[in-house]
Amino acid sequence: MTTDADADAAAGDAVSGETYTASVIGGTGFTGGELLRLLSGHPNFEVVQATSRSADNMTVGRSHPNLRGLDLRFSDPDDLESVDVLFSATPHGVSMGQIDAYFEAADTVVDLSADFRLPEADAYDEWYDGHESPEYLERAEYALPELNRENLAGADLIAGGGCNATATILGLKPLVDAGVLDPETDQVVVDVKVGSSEGGAGGGAASSHPERSGVVRPYAPTSHRHEAEIEAYLGLSVSFTVHAVEMVRGASATCHVFPGDPVSKGDLWGAYRDAYADERFMRIVSGGGGVYRYPEPKAVAGTNYGEVGFELDPGNRRVVVFSAIDNMMKGSAGQAVHAANIALDLPEDAGLEFEGLHPVGSP
Amino acid sequence: MTTDADADAAAGDAVSGETYTASVIGGTGFTGGELLRLLSGHPNFEVVQATSRSADNMTVGRSHPNLRGLDLRFSDPDDLESVDVLFSATPHGVSMGQIDAYFEAADTVVDLSADFRLPEADAYDEWYDGHESPEYLERAEYALPELNRENLAGADLIAGGGCNATATILGLKPLVDAGVLDPETDQVVVDVKVGSSEGGAGGGAASSHPERSGVVRPYAPTSHRHEAEIEAYLGLSVSFTVHAVEMVRGASATCHVFPGDPVSKGDLWGAYRDAYADERFMRIVSGGGGVYRYPEPKAVAGTNYGEVGFELDPGNRRVVVFSAIDNMMKGSAGQAVHAANIALDLPEDAGLEFEGLHPVGSP
Amino acid sequence: MTTDADADAAAGDAVSGETYTASVIGGTGFTGGELLRLLSGHPNFEVVQATSRSADNMTVGRSHPNLRGLDLRFSDPDDLESVDVLFSATPHGVSMGQIDAYFEAADTVVDLSADFRLPEADAYDEWYDGHESPEYLERAEYALPELNRENLAGADLIAGGGCNATATILGLKPLVDAGVLDPETDQVVVDVKVGSSEGGAGGGAASSHPERSGVVRPYAPTSHRHEAEIEAYLGLSVSFTVHAVEMVRGASATCHVFPGDPVSKGDLWGAYRDAYADERFMRIVSGGGGVYRYPEPKAVAGTNYGEVGFELDPGNRRVVVFSAIDNMMKGSAGQAVHAANIALDLPEDAGLEFEGLHPVGSP
Amino acid sequence: MTTDADADAAAGDAVSGETYTASVIGGTGFTGGELLRLLSGHPNFEVVQATSRSADNMTVGRSHPNLRGLDLRFSDPDDLESVDVLFSATPHGVSMGQIDAYFEAADTVVDLSADFRLPEADAYDEWYDGHESPEYLERAEYALPELNRENLAGADLIAGGGCNATATILGLKPLVDAGVLDPETDQVVVDVKVGSSEGGAGGGAASSHPERSGVVRPYAPTSHRHEAEIEAYLGLSVSFTVHAVEMVRGASATCHVFPGDPVSKGDLWGAYRDAYADERFMRIVSGGGGVYRYPEPKAVAGTNYGEVGFELDPGNRRVVVFSAIDNMMKGSAGQAVHAANIALDLPEDAGLEFEGLHPVGSP
């Protein structure tokens, strides 16, 4: 394990804890770029490798203009350098085949794909195309700290959650924990709105600017794979529908919950305060004055914050829960770095201090 | 009643039926402008007056740049000219006080506000600020042809529906009529996404461009007034939530329906085909190939079309219904002209032939 | 030549003049779709064929959701049906090779590509990849009516102009005609802003929604091919730069003109009124009150209108000219139909009556 | 002067140099909010007061949702607390009347309005409404470090530049310094595109979302006040036109320069490298591969970076220069903090380390 606190201090970074070498596999993608942004500005990480088959030997800044100042070129994913922490941002199905190689190269592996985020192999048979390395599933820890913090300390295989699942779990978990929502019997409808970055850097006709602009497009009316995570981690079977809307980054989940027993506004405040009052990256935004009275992707764009809020609909005893995140941050790269910070016993917000912008356009 | 078919023919318009003089009250607003656009291009209407207190004597084109070619100036709403048909596009609460004056000036009144769209006075006590002229409520006919065509023929007081209610009713009515959805017992969650034109031309901090751009903003988490229409015309109490999203015109309703009895994809196709196969302005868009596989506001922007589509979620026996309209057209001015065409026995699509654009940006 | 005025009359269309059969070659592209929209709503055209290699036998509505109601399927471009008028919307370089086949199938050919829009073959050597059928260049008439109306009557080969050239020529021609601008000696800088539809339906990384959204992107800093048209038809060598901005359809040209001799506001009004006072599709928008005081793409989106306006900068004797069009309409398909109307002695605005929308979002 | 390096260190911030107390006058506006964001995250500043008449006693987070975590309420601007540095973000004309009070409260004043950015009083007579406190003009230092770094050290009155002037000066200064551009004789046309935040938090009909969305709107065809700064600091009289385009934050200046003598690509690279190679916040982006080959507001949104690039147009001996900044950062609040860092001998990038996001939507 390398330690160059001196160099770091010289560079003017705050140093608490050691410095770890890191690599990013799949660096040209959107979440790969977000990882490179976060890690290159992180006081405890030194990025020594970013891989890309298609952009081998090209500068990182060519793919990610915000990183033009970064002196780093993509290298061949078949030549992995030895690092403390390897972050993989490859498409689903890749890292399950590379996991042995990953662990040969690194002590800790953080995977942002879906390959290790479900606990049971048969869930992969049902929702994906099966699993090549099921023996790793038990070893993997789900990256969402608000759900799984206690198990992340010292974890060596961390599996990032899905962005839509993350938004939903953050919104509903407090109600489950408080007993307001009974996963066995109560009905929940989750209506998600997401930005175009969720489709990744590839694109295609549907994601070309003229076709994708200004849509309210049902892209997963039913059977979205993220249902599997919600089932696995909340024990909850939700009615789940995802829409593409006009933004690039952001995911907003509106959860319509029908508790079996009557619930009060006070019960809801209690549930969310118990869950998130001490959470560094969670905000409860519910009512009050001004323009921004509920969670909005705009308000958290570029940050690792999750915002949750709620209203009570007396008429039909419905609880409406709003949850907003940046799909590439709290929903992917930010969550991964947050989890790595915990696993390595670093300050939870190291490298994640950006507070976001106001005003911003379409995030 | 004036008739100048000759002049019209000379102008190169198709003439079937007579020509009616029309006035638009509240002409500077968005729906007022839309009415002026539709009526000035309508082969059977001649716009003789458009009123505005704030823009008295200014050209219509100053408020509505698309109407720069129209030789018409706003006049004082206190000096109503005698016309065949008066269209009122004033804010809620105005026309209920002006209705006697309206009928002194016109044989037929088409009101786009909420003032006459509910059948019972007590509904106004519950959802609005009461009603000044309840004696007109029974006389008023709800403008939505797909719901109320038979009663619109010869009607002299037509009440335009609310845009969110219209999108919802168009999406759910076929299921109610087919018995797939039992209004008494089945649960329905409606999650609506709307554009900024729904806020009207006024504006305010929340609708300023920097604050409003790119939002996914819950602006009516519960208790939206349009629930009253859905209750009144479908006998259905829905769990209703409205979000503002990044577009100017458009309303999209996603209806999550939980039928008591099992339903098949075939049942759904049957229900929607029975309801809309012969409707001039309804399109069933459900699955199939290409980019636009479900209803989208973009695909109907500027037109009087409504698009509906659906999917079946076997897992939890849910039917997901998508309904998309242009809130200012099928959801307001277009619906009003459509209803007036029926009331006056004109071709249903007279003045409403625009087919929409592709591609378009944020509608 | 077919004539079915009866059928048309029965269909409720206004009929002045005969009806012509038409085909659209390259129907899946954006301008092809726009042609199909315009021609299918045109009282004097009957679309009998739309071709596409990639979408052979698929419905037109699958590519263009606004045309879902159109009962037409794409067919093989190698089997051209005999028609009165063939509209070709293929990529540059295709129609110059197909032109003989086009004339075997049709009496009149309207080409929307660049293949016949320059009068001299050597201009193709300089700006394009040379020309396969230079013998047709003299026969071709430039489609812009405001520039070339007198030569369009009876023309059998019509070449549509480039959208950026069209916006520029419409803005500057009145100054050249009035002698305010001397093409030989005066300097002109043209700074153009265009929407993503100009890139066509293909796409690619640069036009994917996440990368293309919200840009102010110099995509042709110098040497844009449309300079050749401006040179050819105005005798003017302009300093030309094109930027991509956040919209889908629209082109706006800001022309900074430096007349050799002093000019007054009155001179400018005179020049533009002389040029456009009687033009059906041109609007002079310059100053005045309200929000829309100058030309804007938004105000003409979906229409065949061109808007021009100007200001005088006394400080440095500069005339600033603004010109706005819809690149797919006045800048392509609308211009083509307008020219065809003239060639066939039909009403100039037949099929082009749409007045545009207000408000609209990003057009 | 307060010093609490210990507290800061405990908070995990990097500390080089002392900590200064700061206040922000006019804290509800966009630039005021940006100052609060930057200063609250700045290792060397402690915000002790933010004033607002309209929002007195309300939380800062109510106006700026990204600052919800900040424990600070607006206070009355008539009760200024004693601080080391006072930042004023009031509308033009306010601080010139408050300047004495400002200096009673603070050792150093940084003003973001236009009130002290011009060196000569008569320039205020010509471009603004005159000046109340001309005696301060000589004392004021223009905040743009790339133009005026040497005079900022130890300055106690710093005047932030205008965003459009900043973009233009950053683009043209290297050409003036290198002698490529002769301010006396060479002609320069500057065509600027800006976002809606430039209009401030106020709003009005023209900036309401439905009217402002998707525009390419000439809002200052001629005689923009920022010309005065370009004249004052580059000795250059430019032909200047500003357009509003669809984004919230960002300013892009395209400068069309016509050098009297021939210039080569190498001359241009030399001029820009000489000027900016050692500048912390300037990037030269010109050609090369990938999607982002020239400066773009998107690529610098939220950051203090300025991007400049150029192309040579041999045909008419034109140099096209592109310059992009975030109007609220490099064009206002970021520039102000950068200048304050220099004045107080702090690291230039303290509090300004954010590298920006990719991808982002409309910034």
TrEMBL record, chains A, B, C, D:
Pathway per the UniProt entry: Amino-acid biosynthesis; L-lysine biosynthesis via AAA pathway; L-lysine from L-alpha-aminoadipate (Thermus route): step 3/5; Amino-acid biosynthesis; L-arginine biosynthesis
Uppermost EC category: oxidoreductase
InterPro entries, A to Z: AGPR, AGPR_dimerisation_dom, AGPR_type-1, LysY, NAD(P)-bd_dom_sf, Semialdehyde_DH_NAD-bd
Compartment(s) where it occurs, according to its Swiss-Prot or TrEMBL record: Cytoplasm
Gene Ontology terms describing biological process: L-arginine biosynthetic process via ornithine; lysine biosynthetic process via aminoadipic acid
Active site location: 163
Role noted for this protein: Involved in both the arginine and lysine biosynthetic pathways.
Listed EC numbers: 1.2.1.103, 1.2.1.106
Family recorded in the similarity comment: Belongs to the NAGSA dehydrogenase family. Type 1 subfamily. LysY sub-subfamily.
Entry's Gene Ontology cellular component terms: cytoplasm
Primary localization: cytoplasm
Domain Semialdehyde dehydrogenase NAD-binding: 21-155
Name of the protein this chain belongs to: Putative [LysW]-L-2-aminoadipate/[LysW]-L-glutamate phosphate reductase
